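Run log, item B.
One chain of 369 residues. Sequence copied directly from the ordering sheet:
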Amino acid sequence: MTRQARVVNMATPSAHPEGEGWYRISNQAAGAGQPLEVELYDQIGFWGVRASDFLRELKALDDGQRLIEVGINSIGGDVFDGLAIHNAFRRYGERVTVRIDGVAASIASVIAVGAHRVVMPANAMMMIHNPGIDYASGEADDLRTLADMMDKAKASLIAAYRAKAPALAEDELSRMMDATTWLTAQEALALGLVDEVTDSVKLTASSGQRASIGRMPNVPAALLASLKDDPTPQPPVAPPEPAAGGVELVNLLARLCLEAKLPTEAVAAVASASRMASEAEIRRGVEQAVEVRNLCQTAKLPELANSLIASGLSIEAARARLFDKLVAAAGEDLDNVLPEEKSAPVAVNRGPSASQIYAKRQAGANKKA
C-alpha cells in the first residue's frame, strides 16, 4: 500500500523549536482601524496545524475592511498549504501587505507574492527552488504518478510567481528554481516579486531555522553570518580615498540630485551605476533617475519611484514594471507588444459578387415595370 506523500518546498526540517504552531495573529485594537497583525515565523503547515486552521482563524477575526499586515520569516513548508494561503491573500486583495522580516524561502516566498504589496528590507532574502517530497513509497507506477504530481506542483508555483511578476518568463523562472536561487531585496524588486525595498533590519532566527538554512544549497555567506547568535564584530572598513577629481564628482552628484529634487536613494544608485567614472556618466545617471521618477508620476504610482530608482533599473525596465502594475490593477489582459507593420493591402479585382448582380437585375426589373 502506498503511503500518502507530502510535497514540500523547504529545507530539511529541524525539530520544532518553539510552541505548537507556525503562525500568530494579533487582534489588538479591533474595530479601531488598526490592521490585523499576522506572523508566519516557522515551517508552514507542520506540527499538526494546517493552512485550513490558519485561514479559519484569520477569517473569524477579519471584518472585511481592516488591513492585514503579514510578517514572514520562514524556510517554507507544505506546498499545498502554502498555495492555499497564497490564494487566500490574493482574494483579500489590496488589504494585504507582506513584510519579509528575514527570509522568505521556498513556499514562504510563494505566500509572500500572494500579497497585493510586498515590502522587503535591504538585507532580507528570498529563495525559490523546486518542490520535493519528504517521503515516498510504493510501486513504480505510484512513483511515476508522484513525479507527475510534482511537475504539476512546480507549474503551480511558477504561475503564482508570474501572477505577481507577469514579465518573468516561465522558462526563466524554471531555471531559477532548478538552480535554487537566492534573491537579494534589490534583485527581487528588479524582477517584480516585491514592491518596495526598505532600510536594513537586524535579522533573527531560531536555532532550528539557522540549522535548516545552513543545509540549503547556495546560501549566501552574508546571510549565514547575519543569523549567528553572536557574530564576531568586524573592524570598520575605511572608505577608499577619492581619486583625483573625486571630490568634485561627489559634489557634482549631490548638487544635481538636489536640483532635480531626487530622493537620497538616487545618490547611492547613481554613484553605483556611474562608478563615479566621469562627469558625463554622473549626468547620465541623474537623467535616468529623473526619467524613472517622471514615469512613476505619469503612471500615478509615485510611491514606487524611490524603490525603482534605488534598484538601478533602466528606463525601459522601469517602464515595463509600471506597465505590469497598471495591468494588474486593471485586472485585464493587455498586450504591450507593438503590432507588426503591415503593407497596404493590394486591391484585387474579383469581379461583381452574386449579391451585386442580383441587386442590379432587380433594379432593372423595377424600371421596366
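Observations after the first pass:
- The CA atoms of residues 177 and 210 lie 21 Å apart.
- The mean pLDDT is 78.
Flagged for discussion on Thursday.
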